[in-house]
Fold each of these.
Amino acid sequence: MSETRILVVDDEHLIRWTLQKNLEKAGYGVLLAETGEEALQKIREEAPDLALLDINLPGMDGFEVLEKALQIDQSIIPIMITAFEDVDCVVKAMKFGAFDYIAKPFDFNKVQLSINKALETHRLKREVRRLRQERKGRSGFHNIIGASPEMRKILEMTEKVANTDAATVLIQGESGTGKEMIAQAVHDLSKRGNMPFITLNCPGVPEHLLENELCGHEKGAYTDAYGLKKGLLEVADGGALFLDEIGDMGQGMQAKILRLIEQKTFRRVGGVKDIHVDVRIITATNKDLRKLIAEGRFREDLFYRINIIALRIPALRERREDILPLVKHFVDKYNEDFHKTIRKMSKEVEHFFMAYDWPGNVRELKNVIERAMILGEGDTLLLEHLPMEIVGENQERIMTGLRLPPEGISMDKLEEALVREALKMTGGNQTKAARLLGISRDSLRYRMQKFGIETTAA
Ligand SMILES: Nc1ncnc2c1ncn2[C@@H]1O[C@H](COP(=O)(O)OP(=O)(O)OP(=O)(O)O)[C@@H](O)[C@H]1O
Ligand SMILES: [Mg+2]
């Protein structure tokens, strides 16, 4: 760690001298200033970590210096030195942003104590900030891969939505598309990002327990309610409540949820006091809610209440540009988790990844890679490490890029088409075309004759 540097600002020579000597002995770097102007210049040019600032300075007084110093460098820690314990002065200094004050005459132990406390507080603050940022990095945009235009648009909207403070958000998409991840990002990137993000998996809670789960209960509300329990709404106060799989929720529960999110006021079970909370509601579903409404299985009023802002995440097969970046992302992750050194994948694996339809979307891709990397040795992902059940049924199509039409096709026609295609791709170069088809030049010639393909034009 670099040396902590302290600026001493006092017009009295003796004080500057004593402080300098003691501070240097305690291991700090010391800068000195006699006047406010000089102090500000030193702050601008040398960015000290902490300033011991006399209030009574000739010219610009200590308060003005304090204010300007903080404008120049928000992270500087000011500790004021007062000639005597003047309460008004001290209050004013603290209001202006001083960390502490020391009254003259002082002994150096007191100064040392105050400096230690200040540095420790600032270290903790910095640490909290770093952890918060790290958390944002982990769950915010850092780890969301979005290379396709469709996904980039979703990320752009996520950021906008995050900034519309409390608006309710509905995230739709097939299973495994990343709904929960986007929900978390909406929260993390919002002003509430440091407050709780609480998830309720709607189909996981039996209807008769829902109210208890969301609103909590008072002591003695039931025979077995021994203590007071806060509900999720209270726990999420100031933050967000994520109602996952909201499409899979019974009618009774839908009515309760609607009332709760409309009023944001409730009573604990067995309680008499109204509790009001400030909670952002984020919901997600893999169901088509409009269809459920048409079938009478989802309340229309609840739909309009949660559908204030809607994000629809496309299926992975509708944004194939994301596939390889996601593969790389997961390979990196599992290399680290499993201490592997997989750096490449075979052409077949790449073809498979790109051609497969991924009905389970990103989650399926992630699981396939996790499995392949557990099984795989060496530095290359191979087809044999992918699950047979998905590779097997798709292999032919994937390897050739062809799909047999339902009405069938004659082998001769197919062969002719392939020969023509190969010649076209190589601009009529027979050696190259033969190589593309994995046959000799003579066999290519033979086939060209058979199908009556001219040697010059393809
Ligand atoms: N764009 C992405 N970048 C990185 N990881 C992703 C991305 N999309 C999804 N994932 C990962 O895929 C997995 C599934 O994502 P998530 O749980 O958010 O999906 P979901 O839509 O909520 O799925 P389900 O409907 O099954 O609950 C998670 O491990 C998530 O981290
Ligand atoms: Mg989910």
Amino acid sequence: MPTVAELLIESLAEHGVRQVWGVVGDALNPVTDAIRREERVEWIGVRHEEAAAFAASAQAQLTDGLAVCMGTVGPGAIHLLNGLYDAKKSHAPVLAICGQVPREDMGSDFFQEVDNDVLFADVAVFCQTVTDVEQLPGLIEEAGNAALRERGVAVLTLPGDVGGLDLPKKTAPVRFVTQQPALVPDPDAVRAAAEAINEGGSVTLLVGMGARHARTEVLDLADKLAAPMVLSLKAKEGLEHENPFEVGQSGLIGNPATALAFESCDVLVLVGTDFPYTGFLPTGKTVVQLDLRGAHVGRRTPVDHAVVGDARLALEALLPLLDARSERGHLEHAREVYEVWQRGQQHFTDPDYERKPVGFLRRKVDNPDERIRPELVAAAVDRHAADDAIFTTDTGMSTVWLSRFVRMRGSRRLIGSFNLGSMANAMPQALGACGLDRTRQVVAFCGDGGLSMLMGDLITAVTHELPVKLVVFDNGRLGMVKLEMEQVGLPEFGTVLHNPDFARVAEAIGLRGIRVEDPHDVDAAIAEAMAHPGPVLVDVLTNPDEIALPPKPTLEQGWGFAIAKMREFVDSPE
Ligand SMILES: Cc1ncc(C[n+]2csc(CCOP(=O)(O)OP(=O)(O)O)c2C)c(N)n1
């Protein structure tokens, strides 16, 4: 006779789930016991449940399959929330198994009691508490199917007295539905879009992750229309390499070529992207949008022609209807600007490049000249990382350096908290990625703020032998916020971080720790880290004053920066 917990774990194992991430405790003890006895499922005990949820979110994003995390009664479940929001906003199918007080105590404001069904209502596509064995196996099936089919978070809550209850004899494990039929676009909508493109002048493409699986078709589209292709950060994976049309990213991480490609086009074609930074999108263009989700159409910019459907099917239908362009000046101009900009960026990756002051007044209290350019670090990682490495990156400046200096060549993969924008995602997401395949290289770009937020889970890398490569951009700052403040003319405040020597912390925990303080040591340190067989942390002291220029810095930004520097100088204790 299976128990509720046994049926749950057996069903997950049958489906192909190979790990459960979480913290053990009370109501979930029958579940952890079922995991202990299930050979196919590995228990990964973390130090903070948020790390478990981020790890599961990463696994779901990388495999497109169901990933599982656990948080027990009250605070244990609450700790999952941020990572679960990351999964929700990344459309990642994650099942969270949560504890609850025993049924007889529910509703009495019992010790640790929180109402999970209310708590998770906004984050979850499915959220139910099991109060009777008669609800099973149905609720397990619904939870898994909801997460898989709606690409979101399902929360199944087990009161303390429920997990160990027996189910009727021969209750069979649940089978989840894995089909994801592609949505076929409406032929009339495709025709109208094709006419608008044929009648319009020069075309620029903005391509997002919704088109990653349609690489051949997107490249054919760019070729046929002689169109420069702006890639969203998430579309770097799979679309950036060997792509003679791409001109990099837009937004704050962007470059002058994307600004030019946007401004000088007549028709803007959005393919599989919900790029949210509307301030960077051009106005007054004919806009065609291809997207799987009708709800995305027009929410970032007014759209003249929408095609709702799978990107590959939409492009397959569209391509034969388009006239090939012989005039290729628009594409060539954007590519030239891109290449010039890329060459210019390479200066920053030279350890001997003479540092120029970034403001006309520089604060003297901490001498940034002695610190290392982050670009140098990112470029070294790009050189030494494997062609099939998985990269994760923290929300903050490290994402800028990754976007500009790490090419997604080969079968490299990339995830971050790109829709939620949470700090502290890179390390736990890297743990999750490592858990899928401990022989594949996983590299995390960590901010010092991000890393220290969930630093306890460095221990998880050691305990569970997850050989992550953690590269810490240790600028002693909440760098992105420092930049935000200075751009609007505020003096930097509350952003300084008094960091320990992270390499020594790592060594104390049992990882290999490497501290880098001289730009000339960067290359060897990164090479050593990438070749190290176990978990390793490289703590690089980087320059906090390194600014990432947006594609077209505005006068206000420049003025704000100058004012901020002046105020910092005046307020400086020196
Ligand atoms: C959980 C969370 N708290 C606060 C923020 C706001 N925020 C965005 S970036 C950032 C600074 C990140 O600092 P760090 O990790 O050191 O990276 P850096 O920008 O210096 O490279 C902050 C505080 C956030 N996005 N997420």
